[in-house]
Amino acid sequence: MKLTGRTILITGGSAGIGLAFALKFLELGNEVIVTGRRQAALGQVKSKYPKLHTIQSDVADPAQIAALAARVKSDFPKLDVLMNNAGILLYKNLKSPAADLTGLMAEMNVNVGGVIGTTSALIDVLTGNKGTVINVSSGLAFVPLPAAPIYSATKAAIHSYTQSLRFQLEETGVEVIELMPPAVKTDMTTELAEGGGSVISTDELVKQSFTLLKAGALEIRPGQSKQLAFMRRLAPNFINRQLWKASKKLVPVSV
Ligand SMILES: NC(=O)c1ccc[n+]([C@@H]2O[C@H](COP(=O)([O-])OP(=O)(O)OC[C@H]3O[C@@H](n4cnc5c(N)ncnc54)[C@H](OP(=O)(O)O)[C@@H]3O)[C@@H](O)[C@H]2O)c1
C-alpha cells in the first residue's frame, strides 16, 4: 500500500487502534479524517492533534453513513483510503433469552452493517480515485472467542465479505486490505487484560502493521493472529477449546 500523499477516512478514529493508525498516517504526510459517535472524544482529539479532521457519525445508522459520505465527497474529493475500523465488542451469555432482541444485534449493526454500508456509500469516490479499502476484522475471524460470540461472528463475516470485495474490485484498481489485529490494549480489551489475557500495545500493532502494509501484504496478521490462523488449520478443535477455556470467566452471569 502506498503510505504517503493519501486522503484517508478512518471510522472510529477517536480512540484505540483507529486513533493510533490516524496519527501514524498523519506523521507520514497524509490528510486524515476520523469519525466517532461521541463529539466530546472527537473534540479532545482535535484539540490535541489539530491537523486531524473530525466528523461525528455513527456507522450503525444508514442515514448518518449517507450524510458522512456526502460531506466527505464534497469536502475531500481526493479521498482514496477508507479504513473501516469502528467496532464494538460485547460479552454475551447465550444460555437464556435476551431481554432486548434489538440490543442483541448491536455488534452486527456496527461491525458488519457499518463496514458494508460505509464501503457502499463511498465506493464511487474510491474507484474514481483508485483507492484502498482497509477492513479491520480480527484474529477472532479465524477462531471464535466464545465469551464474545456475536463479536467473533461479525469478524468472521467481515473476513468473508472482504475476500468477495477484493475479487469484485480486482479490475477497478482498488486495493482491498484486511487488518486482523490480535488482542490490543484499548478500551475494548480492559476486561480481557484484567483477566490476564495477553495484549500488545497500539504502538506495537502500528509498527508491525505498517511494515506489512509497506511490503504490500493484503492480509495483515500481526502477532498472535498469525498463530491463530495457523492453529485453526493444524488443530482446530484444540485451539477452539483453548479460547473457550481462556474466555469462560468473561461470560456474564445474565445476558
Ligand atoms: N482491541 C483489540 O484487541 C482488537 C483486536 C482485534 C480487532 N479489533 C478491532 O479494531 C477496531 C477498533 O477497536 P479498538 O480496540 O480500537 O476499540 P476502542 O478503543 O473501543 O475504539 C473504538 C472506536 O470506534 C468508535 N466507535 C464505536 N462505535 C462506533 C459507531 N457505531 N460509529 C462510529 N464510531 C464508533 C469509538 O468512538 P465512539 O465510542 O465515540 O463512537 C472509538 O473511536 C474494531 O473494529 C475492533 O473490533 C480490536
Question: How would you describe the overall organization of this protein?
Answer:
This protein has about 260 residues and is of the alpha/beta class. The protein has one domain (about 5-250): NAD(P)-binding Rossmann-like Domain (Rossmann fold). About 50% of the residues lie in helices and about 10% in strands. The protein has 10 helices and 7 strands. It has helices at about 15-25, 40-50, 60-75, 100-105, 105-130, 150-170, 190-195, 200-215, 225-235, 235-245; strands spanning about 5-10, 30-35, 55, 80-85, 130-135, 175-180, 220. The protein has a 7-stranded parallel sheet, with helices on both faces. Helix 1 links the parallel strand 1 (about 5-10) and strand 2 (about 30-35). The longest helix has 23 residues, at about 105-130. It is globular, with a radius of gyration of 18 Å. The termini are far apart. The mean pLDDT is about 95. It binds NADP nicotinamide-adenine-dinucleotide phosphate.
